[in-house]
Amino acid sequence: MNEVLILEIKAQLYDNLEKNGIVILPPMDVNDSINLLKSTGLAATVTMLDPWYNRGTGGVRDDYIDFILNILNNVKDITTHLYLWGFPEIVAQFVDKIPAPLAFSTWLTWYYKNNPSVIRGWRSSQQTCLHLSTPSGKLYPEKFFNDTQRERYQDKKMRFIPGPPSVIEESLLVGFIGKKEQTAHPAQKHFKVYGKILKMTTKRGELTFDPMCGSGTTGEVCQALGMKAILSDMSEEYTQICEKRLGLKRLDCPALRQLIPTSPITPLPTVQIVIPKQNADDVIQMQLNW
Ligand SMILES: C[S@@+](CC[C@H](N)C(=O)[O-])C[C@H]1O[C@@H](n2cnc3c(N)ncnc32)[C@H](O)[C@@H]1O
User: Fold this and answer.
1) Reduced to 3 states, what is the DSSP secondary structure of residue 228?
2) Is the peptide bond before 101 cis (omega within 30 degrees of 0)?
3) CA distance 225 to 244
4) From the CA of 267, how far away is ligand 1's center (Å)?
5) CB 3.0 to 4.6 Å from 32: which of 28, 39, 132, 251, for a disulfide?
């Protein structure tokens, strides 16, 4: 890669992260954004990997396993934690293939009971999130204490440290409820779901990287919790949704345009953009409830 261009991008990236806390990159492929982070010397505490699930929206690709494994291999040395999302039967195929230094940590389930049955079979009511972690990955279960637990912990009277459950119960947003939170993205994750898992692994000021960020849920959670984030998605349309939702423009850097030409715009389902901004009261309420 061209050293001069990289230095210029690095300066702008660090500057924007410092100033805004969140950086939205121009549309690019997941591996391009990973390579960009690598070449600018940035490492993330958490990488959120929420690809299409190889079923339904986003289509089906025959090389799905290799596609995901290639991403894991590319990102494994610049992240301490990684969350990989998908349907259980799809994500299960990665459990014994995780590349070191990442290792399997926890099988998390997002259970949503509001999803109506659309097939003549078992009703899908959950998604899986594999939590992968390197040996240096820290967890912060104390962030989930109630007042009594916090007091006992401070008085060193706690015999064991309870953490949050590995089953997260929140409604499915898209198409069903959550109108206040909904953007036009067809697979938007719930703010509270991302909030819980990011709180467990990230401290204020630390960096989360989401190279398939869709509508920017990771960015909104990081904004609310005082964490930093670098977001990117291959779609121009979703990058625009992200900008609107977070009230931020994408990184405008001529050197970056020269280095990584924008990915072709993929045709996407068109839905009316609703109210993308999280209500500040809800955010505060959620923080208090966690
Ligand atoms: C399940 S959605 C992510 C939803 C997101 N977590 C949210 O809460 O809005 C998957 C995203 O991956 C993006 N994507 C798919 N293939 C990609 C690739 N090769 N590089 C970058 N982004 C990609 C899609 O455009 C889509 O927005």
Assistant:
1) strand
2) yes
3) 19
4) 13
5) 28
Residues 6+ away with beta carbon under 8 Å from 57: 186, 187, 269
Secondary structure element (H or E) that encloses residue 82, with its range: strand 79-86
Neighbour count for residue 80 (Cβ, 10 Å): 22
- State how beta strands 79-86 and 126-133 pair: antiparallel
**DSSP bridge partners of 130:** 84, 107
Q: Ligand 1, closest atom to CA 238? A: 27
57-76 tens-digit pLDDT: 888 999 999 999 999 999 99
The whole-angstrom separation of Cα 1 and Cα 26 is 18
CA of 29 to the centre of ligand 1 (A): 10
What is the identity of the amino acid at 18?
E
Query: How many domains does the chain fold into?
Result: 1
- 207 forms bridges with which residues in the sheet? 228
Pocket of ligand 1 (CB under 6 A): 29-30, 50-52, 185, 187-189, 212-215, 217, 233-235, 238
Look up the CATH number of the domain holding residue 82: 3.40.50.150
Element (H, E) at 48: strand 44-49
Task: Domain of residue 277: give its range.
Answer: 3-289
Mean pLDDT by 10 residues, the chain (290 residues): 88 96 97 95 97 89 96 98 96 97 98 81 89 97 94 92 94 67 86 96 97 97 97 96 96 89 47 37 32
List the residue whose alpha carbon is closest to atom 4 of ligand 1.
214
Nearest atom within ligand 1 for CA of residue 189: 8
Using DSSP, state whether 36 is helix, strand or coil: helix
Report how far ligand 1's centroid is from the alpha carbon of 150 (Å).
Answer: 38
- Closest ligand 1 atom, CA of 194? 8
